[in-house]
Amino acid sequence: MTSPIILWLRQDLRLIDHPALCAAAEQGPILFLYVLDDETPGEWRLGGASRWWLHRSLESLGKPVPLVLRRGKADDVIAQVLVETGATAVHFTRDYAPWSDGLERRVKAACDDAGATCHRHKGFLLHEPEAIRTGQGEPYKVYTPFSKACLATGEPREPRPAPKFKCWDGEVSSDALADWELLPQKPNWAEHFEAAWTPGEAGARQRLAGFIDDGLEFYADDRDRPDRDVTSRLSPHLHFGEISPVQCWHAVRAAQAKANGKLDRAVEKFLKEVLWREFSYHLLHHWPTLPEKPFRPEFGNFPWSDNPDALAGWQKGRTGYPIVDAGMRELWATGIMHNRVRMIVASFLIKDLLIPWVDGERWFWDTLVDADIGNNAASWQWVAGCGADAAPYFRVFNPVLQGEKFDTKGDYVRKWVPELAKLPAEHIHLPWAAPSSVLKAAGVELGNNYPHPVVDHAQARDRALAAYQEIKGTA
User: Fold this and answer.
1) pLDDT band at residue 470, thresholds of 50, 70 and 90?
2) How far apart are CA 263 and CA 267, in angstroms?
């Protein structure tokens, strides 16, 4: 029997535009291997929402191709499968998490020991982190010049079609996906995920097409409006590699070409978001402590507050600030949160409550279906003011003004905070200031069915700025 070529699947759960698959297909019959490795990432093992998505994504990919599923340290598992099957090569897509370089080196060593060749491929990003440098040969620390440098390289390569390949038909043991228990047990906190998402390559392509048809036209003007469905919602599909950034890039470029200039602003805005993803991984590659330590060292001395009750209230959407609570409840119900609202809730946690940004980062890691080690770390540090090219710490979002500006009629709050649904728009973002007669007519009982604000925002802002003054110049 012909020996197989192992395709080690990671965050590349697709068949189209898959460089590693294309290369493996040229060498022989393919054994599709996915390893659930909870040991190598340590505390950054997949969170609950990501595990739900992974189950559905593997379920989808397992329909067109047979998957071999194993659990354990990825390098150990690959070494075992090499021995069991006599595989002559391993192909995989490069990853950029802090633990990945060491893991990939150990996989290479396992291949060497087994007399197999090892092939690492691009495919998760448009630009490899080593490829984009300043004129002095240094990594970029500011997004705008980084994005300009990316654009100066020209358009990305064209997407590649799925290659013709043969699946290896030899005998090898595989875990049953259900035995991994990736789906939540009772209570089923992910019960609403099924209606909100279609994980898998087909779902990703459908989502991209739907965004281009229904959302892209309005993206430039309305992308900050959580009450309007104009964002792409492609982030979990991109994270799990069900679609590539190359596919997304060229799809919106094609739509732009057909629109005779009408989509130019929208496409520019969308592609800048794609490049923010690139920038996040650029930072992560060059500064691998980004998920855990502030990029700006003076923030290591920041006088954070230890307030478990306030953290729990934030997590549950019980802060008394409607736009914050709506975002946190949307996250729990759907595994996603509108990007503008992510900034609002992050600012509230960090600056109104003085709770460390890493606590918010870890909550997002467990509850977001698009939890991403690069984007998550870079974005939380951006809001906290301690990251590369970060928003200044003294930029403190006012949750009332943010709600009034971006959820003008209160529709987003009404959807996710139904106890406030009957409040008129002029009061929905600050119910504590509404006349008692208005509250009574809307069925709102502050302190009973909806909480009083956990902090006074003006006082909290002053406290945050005073804390910042303490650390200036301490690094």
Assistant:
1) confident
2) 6
Question: Among residues 335, 428, 343, which one has the least CA distance to residue 384?
Answer: 343
Q: Which of 2, 10, 168 is nearest to 77 (CA)?
A: 10
* Residue that is written with structure tokens 């093992």 in the block: 45
Helix (H) or strand (E) holding 119: strand 117-121
Looking only at the bridges linking them, the beta strands covering 117-121 and 89-93 are parallel
Cβ(388)–Cβ(283) below 8 Å: yes
Strand pairing partners for 33? Answer: 8, 68
**Helix ranges (DSSP H) in 259-338:** 264-286, 308-316, 322-334
Are the CB atoms for 319 and 349 separated by under 8 Å? no
pLDDT tens string 138-157:
999 999 999 999 999 999 99
Helix axes 308-316, 322-334, angle to 10 degrees: 70
Which residues have a Cβ under 8 Å from the Cβ of 287 and sit 6 or more positions away?
Answer: 295, 388
With CA atoms as reference, report the closest residue to 134 among 149, 124, 122: 149
84 closest CA partner among 175, 172, 174: 172
| pLDDT number for residue 30 | 98
Pairwise CA distance, residues 471 & 296, whole Å? 11
pLDDT tens, position by position, 13-65: 999 999 999 999 999 999 999 999 999 999 999 999 999 999 999 999 999 99
* Crossing angle of helices 322-334 and 399-406, rounded to 10°: 70
| Annotated domain spans of the chain | 5-124, 125-159+201-286, 297-469
Give percent of the chain with pLDDT exceeding 90.
Answer: 94
Tell me which residue has tokens 């504590």: 432
d(CA 251, CA 238): 14
DSSP code for 352: I
In the predicted model, what is the mean pLDDT of the chain?
A: 96
Tell me how many degrees the CA angle 346-405-234 measures, rounded to the nearest 5. Answer: 55
- Output the pLDDT for position 125: 97
Q: What is the pTM of this model?
A: 0.96
**351 vs 1, more confident:** 351
Query: According to the CATH classification, is domain 297-469 in 3.30.465.10?
Result: no
| Domain over 125-159+201-286 is classified CATH 3.20.20.140 | no
Note the maximum CA span of the chain. Answer: 81
Cite the active site residues. 273, 276, 304, 339, 357, 380
CATH domain 5-124 topology? Rossmann fold (3.40.50)
Is residue 375 within 8 Å of 277, Cβ to Cβ? yes
Please state, in angstroms and rounded to a whole number, the distance separating the CA atoms of residues 12 and 237.
Answer: 10
* 297-469 matches 125-159+201-286 in CATH topology: no
